[in-house]
Structure formats: C-alpha cells, structure tokens
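Handout for the seminar on molecular recognition.
Each group receives one record of this type.
Step one: identify the two inputs.
Step two: read the structure output and locate the region that could contact magnesium ion.
Step three: write two sentences on what you found, then compare them with the reference statements printed after the record.
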Amino acid sequence: MGQIKFITDFEDKFYLNKKIFVRVDFNVKVQDNRVSEDFRIRSAIPTIEYLSKRGARVILGSHLDRPKGRDYRYSLRPVSLKLEEILSSFNTKVKFAEDCAGTDTKRMVDSMENGEVLLLENLRFYPEEEKNDLQFCQALASYADVYVNDAFSTSHRKHSSTYGVAKFFDTRIAGFNLAQELQYLSLLREKPANPFTLVIGGVKIKDKIGALDHLLPKADKVLIGGAASYTFLKAKGHSVGQSIIEEDYLPWVTKALQDHSDKIILPLDHKVATSENSDHYQVVQSEIPKDMRGFDIGDKTIQKFSYEIHNNGLGTIFWNGPMGYFEKEVFSNGTKSVAVSMALAFWRGVKTLIGGGDTLEAMKVSGVSEKEVTHVSTGGGATLRFLAGDEMPGIDILKSN
Ligand code: ADP
Ligand code: 3PG
Ligand code: MG
C-alpha cells in the first residue's frame, strides 16, 4: 500500500480546469426544510474553497440519512441553500443537481465553469450507492478527472461513492477535513500523550467494544457513565433495577473489569425514575431499586468525574457518549458537567477529543463551543471503527494510488 496523497501535495496549477468529484458527508440534521445543524458542512468548506479558488470545478456527492429510494424528505436541497449561504461570502457559485445520475446531471457537470460548485442530490436515492454497484460507480466517475474524499465520517462504508468510484481515478486525494481527522485520531489510537483519560457513556456498548479494546490498555483512567455504566455495575454485582443493560456483553464487561480494575471508575450515585417521561426522580447511592431506571449520574459522581478530568495533568482526554438521558433537562446535569470540565481541561492545555453524533449534540446543549476542544470528530460510527483499528474502505482506497 502506498501513501495517502493530500491536497497540498499538488501544485496550484494542477487543479486549474480540473473536474473534481469530492465525497463529502452532508448527513446533517434537517428540520422543516432547513439545515438545523451544519457542523459537517462547515468542516468541508476548507477543501471546497481551496479547490474552487484554484480554478477547479467542484462536484460534491453526499448521502443524507437512510432513505429507501427517492424520498424527498431526505433531499439535499436544503443543504445546497446552506452551502450557498456559507460560500456566498467567498463569491463562489453553488448549483444543485436534482439527481445524482442521468443525462441532465451529466449536462450540468459538462457546462460547469472554473471555480463553480455543483452539489448532487442524495446519492442514496439510488440503492446502487450502498451496493457499491459497478455501473453506478462508473456513472459517478464519468463526471470528473480527480477524486477527493473529505468524508471521514462515512469512510467506514464500502459504498460506490466512498470506495468503488475511487478505483476509476488515477488521482485520489484526502481532503483537509479527512487529513485532520487522520492526524488527531491516529495519534489518539497509537500514542495518546499520557496521562490519558477515557470518558465513556451513551448507550451501545456493542458499538464501542472495538475502540475500548484498543484504548483501555493505553488509558490511565476510564470514567464510565450513561447507560453503558449499568452493564458494568451489574457485572460487579450491583442491583441496577430496570436500567438499560446489554446482557450479551456482560462477559466482555466482566473481563474488562478484571483486567483494568485499577483504572475503571464507575458511578457512585444515580438519578433514577420509573420512566424517561417522569419528572419525579430520586437520587440513590450504589443500588438502584427494582422498579427504577438510571437516567443520569448523581452529584457525587459528577464531583468525582470532574475531579478526575481536572486532575488529568497535561495529557489526553477522549470523550464519547453522554452521561445520561441528556435530551431531557432533568437528566442533563451529568453530561453538562462533563462537557464543561472537558472545556476547562482544554483551556488548561490538555489535548481533548470528542467523538460521536450525540456527544457533539450534548456538547452544544452544554454551551461548550468546538473552539474549546482540541479536536471534535465529525464521525460517529466511523470514529469508533477507526479507533478500533478496523478496516476503513474509504481511507484504504486512497492508499492504493
Ligand atoms: P454517541 O452518538 O455520542 O456515540 P450514543 O449513541 O452511544 O452516543 O448514546 C447517546 C444516547 O444515549 C443519547 O440519546 C442519550 O439519551 C442516551 N443515554 C445515555 N445515558 C442514558 C441513560 N442512562 N438512559 C437512557 N438513555 C441514555
Ligand atoms: C454518520 O452519520 O455516521 C455517517 O454519515 C454515516 O451514516 P450511515 O451510518 O447511515 O452510513
Ligand atoms: Mg449515537
């Protein structure tokens, strides 16, 4: 396997007159036909702007959500409006192709001028996208001379636009955002500066096991909150009532507790209620009553976790997964406290990294800005897979130029 080529590995004049297919991940939140959260769009702007300024014709391909066929609730049109709004300040024209394939789209591509940006409609309107279909790959490849992947967050997918299409190009390049993700996440995966603290929460232990297997041995401390903590507490013999448990992963959790007993710190108290809709909660210490479910960490735990984050020293902290059912105000304290502690650690000089779609949302809800974190990954599943050392087809294909 060769080396990944980056945008700045090529001279400016290389890009002039070139048609460039850029796989971006504009899988963002859309509400009432408007983009309500544009982090991923902003993260792709450096690449789009750089190419456009150098006289390239930039063809953007993305998916949005998981539509079954052509379903306009998942149209990228609202994204094109947002993109236009952002790029208008750079005097860059944005056009929208109502289809990602077909003769009309090809015509639009062929009539593009240097510096123009064309966003294609949702690639997943065609089932061929997810099937890595050869003809579909060929159709997409016919638009351009050069392939750029700037969609780290979807690089764990072996789809037409992330994988198959790249094979048709002699020149495959990693965009700025992908390069930045690789830089920070590779360091985290291989050699995080110690002391290294892991803060893990959220729901699905299943999705996190690979990353935990890889990172636990490197970590000095592991703080576990959120729904994930109840499987750990159960494995230790505590009563967890009706809290979310992943029975299938009890053996793995038991082993992790044995191997890393000195590092793993579990909640000391909990905010519990009979259901997520209940406004009545109570705080319990180590044992959760039979008819109750844990929805947030309690104050003692908040204090303990904040103390550990504040006393990490100038190393690394990685946070994935909210500490509770933060979508509801009464259960958001644990998550908000961790977010603020992370920001304070950053200001003190700690390398802080945050990953996960819901964690990013939680960070925002907590009033912490992306500027108060060393690196906020655009990825959810992709980040965890990468940290686990799993295959990343969208990245691997860039290495085989
Ligand atoms: P991420 O997307 O950041 O990787 P996850 O998807 O693993 O995070 O988990 C996020 C979800 O976990 C949130 O919707 C949050 O409400 C939920 N959650 C966290 N703790 C609890 C809990 N104790 N009970 C119910 N849901 C929880
Ligand atoms: C994500 O949101 O994690 C990426 O856009 C990938 O989406 P997917 O899980 O639907 O493939
Ligand atoms: Mg999630």
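Reference statements: The first strand starts at residue 5 and ends at 6. The CA atoms of residues 102 and 139 lie 8 Å apart.
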